[in-house]
Amino acid sequence: MCVDYQLLRREASNPLYDCVREYPYELLVPFHNDLNLQERAHELAKGLRRELLFQVGPFLCCKSPASHIGPYRYAVDFLVPDGTVVCAADMGRVEEIVTSSDIWGPSPEFADHLNFITIAHHTWRTHHHSGPPEYHYWTQYCHLARGSEREFDIHVGDHVSAGQPIARTGKTGWTSCDHLHFMAFMSDDGRGAFGFMSLKPRFNVRHWQEQSHDG
User: What's the DSSP call for residue 62?
Assistant: First the structure.
């Protein structure tokens, strides 16, 4: 994932990103029930500015004022320790896997060393047709451990279900602390410089709470 940070800063003022667009379906929180994650998240939050922190259900998250701008505006950083199992937030097809890096650092120069998985999602739930699935939306899972998708036998082209494990977190790319950078996005139809725009996710925290009671 090559990021031109100077272009990103300029693109942040594009009015295209001022309009709030939501991912059309409820997403699962991309982790299984693990109460230890909540405790570890508060440890990871030490030193972060309080105004950047927010909750998604029981999970502690943060915003990055340096990188969550322009087409990345609605990205969510889940504060979870390295090695946490990452799950697909919605059913879809694995479109891209880049997990060859073990390099990370706290500045944009490290962005190209990011490990990530991209999953494509189609709209068959609202548009009935007899042809192949039409992919209009994507989710992306960033800062993954090197080669960790192999533990779960995940390959490009695989169809995955919501909640299915796909990889583990690990510090790679532009980062300074343990977290999963999650983003839902769609094409910007050529109106922006990056070709995509993030969507505001709607997480089904009830599902996670039900897991908690069952556990």
Answer: E
Contact 71, 16 (CB under 8 A): no
What are the φ/ψ torsions at residue 149 (nearest 5 degrees)? Answer: -65, -20
Nearest residue to 166 via CA among 68, 99, 110, 81: 99
CA gap 71, 12 in Å, rounded: 7
**What are 165-192's pLDDT values in tens digits?**
999 999 999 998 999 999 999 999 889 9
- Compute the distance between CA of residue 203 and CA of residue 7 in angstroms, rounded to an integer: 30
What predicted TM-score, i.e. pTM, was given to this entire model? 0.91
The contacts of residue 19 (CB under 8 Å, 6+ apart) are none
Could you give the C-alpha distances from 26 to 14, 39, 67, 88, 206, in angstroms and in order? 27, 26, 25, 12, 11
